Structures are given as C-alpha cells and as structure tokens.
Write the structure tokens for this entry.
Amino acid sequence: MNRPDPADSASGPAAASTAGPATDEDGWLALHRDTVKVTGVWVFVLALGGAVPTTYGIGSGTSYGVALAWVVPAVVLVVAAAVIADYVRWRHSRFRVTPTRMELHKGMVFTTKRSLARERIRTVDLSADPVQRVFGLVKVSIGTGEQVEAGGAGQSPQTLVLDSVARGEGEWLRALLLDRAPVAADGTESGVRVLARWDPVWLRFAPLSFWTFALAGVAVGGLFQVLNWFGRESLPVDVTRDVVEEIGATQTLLLFAGVFVLVGVVATLAFSLEAWWAYRLEREPGGTLRVRRGLLTTRSVSIEEQRVRGVEIVEPLGVRSAGAARVDVVTTGLRADPKSEASTLLPAAPMTVAASVAAAVAGIRPGGRLRRHPATARTRRLRWALAADAVLAAVVAWLAVASPVRDFWAIVLTVLAAGCAVALVVLAGDAYGSLGHDLDGDFLVARKGSVRRATVYLQRQGIIGWRVSQSVFQRRAGLMTLTATTAAGARRYSVIDADEHEVLEFGAEAVPGLLDPFLVHERPIVDHPEQAAFREP
C-alpha cells in the first residue's frame, strides 16, 4: 500500500512534516538511512569509554605512543564493523502498510517475515534517544496489546519495531494505524484533551525515595571502579585518613554521610528531570490515552482506554510524607515489570493532582473511607517487628561484648541498630493503618503497604478469579488473604490479613456468583428461611 497523498490529511508545513519515505512498486518502505549514522555514533562513544582506561593501562607499562598505536586501530575497527553490520540490517529491512496488515521483513542470511492484522493493533509508541533526536529519527514500536510477563525478555512477540524512521513518518504511521487525526501545522491535534502537564515543582518529590541512596551507592561504586582502572584504588583510604586527622572521626562520618546523600539527591533529580521533562497526559478522540515525556530521550506511550481495568495510586513512604503520590494504570498490553515505567500515568505529584488524574482516567473517587482490618492483623505485624528487634538486640550485645570492631564504630553501629529497632515498630503500626478494602461502585478497592503503600481501584468486571490463602499463623489469628486475579496490570491484587469470614462475603459481593461454588452456607433457620450466612468450608 503506497503512502496516502499528504493533501488528503493535512496541508502546508504539516503535510511536509508527515511525509513518508519513498516506496517501491510493491509499496514497501525503507527505514531511514541515517540509522546507520546513529549506530556509528553510539558505538564510537562506547568504544571511546573503554579506550581511555585501556590506553592509560597500556601506556603506564610501556608508552602512550604504543598504547595509541594499539587502541586507535581497535576503535576504528569496532566502529567500522558495527556500521557495516547495521548497513546490512538497514539494506535488508523493509516494511509496508496494506489495507489489512502491517508487515515487516528483515534479514539477509536469516530472513524474518512478520505481520500484524491492522484490526488487532492497539499501541504505536514512539521513542528517540539523544543521537536519534539529532538526526530527527524515532523508533516506532507497534503492538497488539499482548501482555508481557513480569521479568520477561522485553518486547512481546506481537510487537513490530521499526528502528528507525523519520519523526514525521513515525507520527504519520501512528495516525494511520490508530486512525488518529493528523498533526496540525501548529503541532496540535484536533480533539485532544490534556489531562495533566509537567510542573517543575514536582521535582522536589524525586529525592524522597529509596533511589536517592541506591544511585549514591552506584556513584560511589563507579568511582572506586574508575580509580581501580587508573591504579589509584588506595586514594579514598588515604583521603579518609587525612580528613580524620584534620577534623576528627565523628565529623568525618557526618561529612561523608552528607556528601553521600547530596550525590544521591543530585543523581535522582537528574534522572527524574530526564525522564519526565515536558510530560503530558492526553486523551485522544477514539479513546486513547497518550503519555509523552523525556528530555534527552523522548517517549510516547499509547494506552487504549478499552483495555484499562483500573488505576493504582502508589505512595512510597518518603513521597507520602510530603503529601504526594504517583498514578499507575492497570491495563492489559503493558509490561508487568515493576522496573518498567510504561504503566505510569503520572509521576510523583501532589495528591490533589493524583486524585484528579485517577478520576479523569477511571472515573473513581479517591480518598474514601475503607473497611478496617481486625486488630489481630496489627498484632501479627508487631510480633514480626519485635522478633526482628530481638535479632538487632543480639547484634548490639555482641558489639558491646565480643566484637573486634573499634569502640567508635561499635557505638555507631549500636545507634543504627537502635534506630532500626524503633523504625520497625513504627512501620509495623503504619502498615496496619494502611490496610483497608471496600467496594466503590464498579470498582474493588484494596490498600496495603507502608514503605510502599498502594491503593488499587480494580474494575469488578475485570476480575476473572479468586485465590484464597491462609497460613498457619493467619489461621490462628482468624485472618485470611483474598487475591483477585485479572488479565491486566500485575495480574494479582490482594486483600491481605482480613477477617476470614468477612473477606469471603466481600469477595462474593464484589463478583456475584464467582465464589458461590466454593462457599458452604449454613442450614437456613426455620423461622427465617431467607437468611443465610457464609462460613469457611
């Protein structure tokens, strides 16, 4: 199928911006040839990153002239091989759009031919890394909405990836395959409603997460690795010794802790800025949500609203303390990998913004009161916290009596252990306070967690099964966990540590008829035969 005349969908500059590549007599289109240049640039940058420490290592033992004589040809050879291989890939990659199918053929020795029925296409996502943006290219991922398992190998087998095409061509393909209106001359699309926009003030929530410490640890590890490359692995020890002699051990510890946190804050701010700059959540005509974001690497994710089964309001402890939350969508066709941000509709933002986005997407009313769980659920959490505290107390006793650690570090570790013991008890109480469940119209609501509190609003009609579980400890406390299974999102959403009788009635009410074959009803009372109560089988 040849590309439609631009005059049929737009005119003037807009038409020029959406022009597709030239087609052959059978309607096959080629990827953009600048993709070979993109590959060359990336391989050169990576090769250069390895060449610098290699040159230093070889030059330290011989001379830098000899090192360059080996490293420079090696870099040229690696870049040339990568460019040639990518040229072959580009030369033997073709795609076309027919009235009924989207087809992709690639490969020279081992040829791969894949096609998708256009009626099954649900997502057309665009992304561009910094080098692709310089050349005006985007990578287009075309999928059917097939779910990818958590921890899977990335792209679904039902996803066609065009790497890469001109940005205008990518927008044209998206409009064609999703039957969307073309982009106007001013860059806007008719009928598009913006549900949320990026606010730089939201960056203040980014450091309030575990990633602040994780990224700081990565930075420290990277520093040690670089020093090892250059044979200066003893430098941190020497600097630490000098600082201790200058200002004292306690001040040095506080100084290094402050620097560690500062590095983590800067890194987290940088990552958040790159990931969510220019963020927009849009609702397009025809029932599609589109998330656009990115500073260096731009991303555009499409979510068909017919496949949305609810939303999840996530409140990590630090973010929650600042009155903020993020919103994830519960839908089929997106990765269920917790590390993936494909399902995030809204980054960490004020709770009022999160509530408005959740209401606009799913039509829910966040913030309602939920049914409380039995007090035995709190006792259970406190018991586990106290058991962990007993272990910490044993560690502290060992540090005080038999540890070979110096007195200063023994005191530091003792203070940390005591702080952890108190924190565990506080978190246990907070975890119980977070528990709750209820029915809100067409949605099942379940909340749990303390370090990561999450409230899911799951469409009752999207629940396809129940899983009932009860450990030995739960049975003694009269508690039970009821898990709703669905084809969307994480696929399993649980009401944990609820009353064993009440939660079964709750499940039967949420999805009438689904639990009935597994419940035993008491024999009706003679005076009131219409009354029946659920009990555990």
Summary: The mean pLDDT is 83. The radius of gyration is 29 Å. The CA atoms of residues 253 and 535 lie 59 Å apart. The first strand starts at residue 29 and ends at 30.
